[in-house]
Structure to design on (377 residues):
């Protein structure tokens, strides 16, 4: 089949961008002809024989929503000039055969944050909701790849989207993030902890994310400050992601004795070494469509504490790890982390046992399978 994938912008390390490239690789490796249309490509370009990168004309709109609307027009024009068997939109673009819903329902989220009159009057919000409605309205025919049950519930509640249009996908963890053989994993853990200055009898908490507030890094750091004094002295915190260091330090300086225990780390292509080095992942996100890093942690046998808003929180709960319910409570998070550190060997064993029974890497295979079925109809 001939497949068109549209993505507004590609840059390294982005979750949506990684999924886009995995879908394209999987389809190309099966012998399908894949065209990937975008406005910009940062980083190394793929070299698959059946995969071509195309660029739209320059987009000159002033706002993000206007730029997305112009991009949608360019995608439609590109489609008219060629013949495709299947089209996949990675952003909210109408009339595609498939849309990959990487985020939660925006209408549901905005209604929790703003007055209805605000959403109705401000042009930005009207445009955002118009774009989303074009994909999820019962009048549309686009099939929707979803990555959590919560998404389906929200979209149906807000738009009345027909249930048969949803295509659930498993986690899309990169196989390169699977842990190495045990002997290599042990050495990698020791080397990384040494690099971070974490001793054998100390704990390392880890948060991976590129948005300081959205991922709840401030909540995690507050938890570190609230640990019992003796435990806090033996606990380090590593934050991996594209977060401005000054924001982190401005927050940390107001907390007791934390400056010696916080390690800001730039974004990485793969974070397996930090997952293996850590003792507990703390991911108290305010908003998280899925949280692929959560299953990456579980796959490495790393216990996870996360909030229930994370799309992949059911995997965390199934592994026997704590999930903080909504509405969020800082006391609940601090209590869960303290309890987890007190029973770490048991928690690690449960996590590793659960991970050994799961396939966390099947998203791209399932997505291309669905598109092939659609093509054969």
């Amino acid at each position: 089949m001939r497949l068109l994938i549209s993505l507004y912008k590609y840059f390294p390390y982005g979750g949506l961008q990684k999924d886009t490239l995995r879908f394209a690789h999987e389809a190309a490796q099966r012998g399908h002809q894949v065209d990937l249309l975008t406005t910009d490509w940062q980083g190394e370009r793929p070299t698959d024989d059946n995969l071509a990168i195309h660029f739209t004309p320059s987009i000159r709109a002033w706002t993000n929503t206007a730029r997305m609307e112009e991009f949608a027009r360019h995608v439609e024009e590109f489609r008219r000039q060629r013949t495709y068997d299947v089209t996949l939109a990675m952003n909210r673009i109408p009339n595609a055969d498939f849309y990959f819903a990487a985020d939660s329902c925006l209408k549901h989220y905005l209604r929790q944050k703003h007055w209805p009159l605000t959403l109705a009057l401000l042009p930005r919000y009207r445009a955002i909701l118009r774009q989303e409605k074009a994909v999820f309205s019962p009048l549309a025919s686009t099939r929707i790849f979803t990555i959590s049950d919560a998404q389906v519930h929200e979209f149906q509640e807000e738009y009345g989207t027909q249930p048969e249009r949803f295509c659930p996908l498993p986690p899309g963890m990169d196989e390169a993030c699977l842990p190495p053989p045990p002997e290599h994993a042990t050495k990698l853990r020791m080397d990384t902890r040494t690099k971070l200055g974490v001793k054998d009898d100390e704990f390392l908490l880890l948060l991976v994310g590129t948005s300081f507030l959205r991922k709840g890094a401030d909540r995690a750091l507050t938890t570190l400050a609230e640990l019992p004094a003796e435990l806090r002295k033996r606990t380090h915190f590593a934050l991996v992601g594209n977060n401005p260091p000054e924001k982190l330090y401005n927050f940390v300086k107001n907390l007791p004795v934390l400056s010696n225990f916080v390690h800001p780390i730039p974004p990485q292509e793969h974070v397996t070494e930090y997952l293996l080095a850590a003792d507990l992942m703390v991911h108290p996100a305010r908003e998280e469509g899925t949280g692929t890093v959560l299953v990456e942690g579980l796959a490495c046998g790393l216990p996870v504490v996360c909030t229930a808003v994370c799309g992949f929180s059911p995997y965390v709960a199934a592994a026997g790890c704590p999930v903080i319910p909504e509405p969020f409570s800082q006391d609940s998070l601090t209590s869960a982390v303290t309890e987890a550190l007190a029973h770490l060997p048991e928690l690690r064993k449960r996590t590793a046992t659960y991970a050994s029974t799961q396939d966390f890497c099947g998203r791209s295979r399932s997505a291309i399978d669905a598109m092939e079925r659609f093509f054969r109809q």
In short: The chain has two domains: 2-170+362-376, 175-355. The chain has 16 helices and 13 strands.
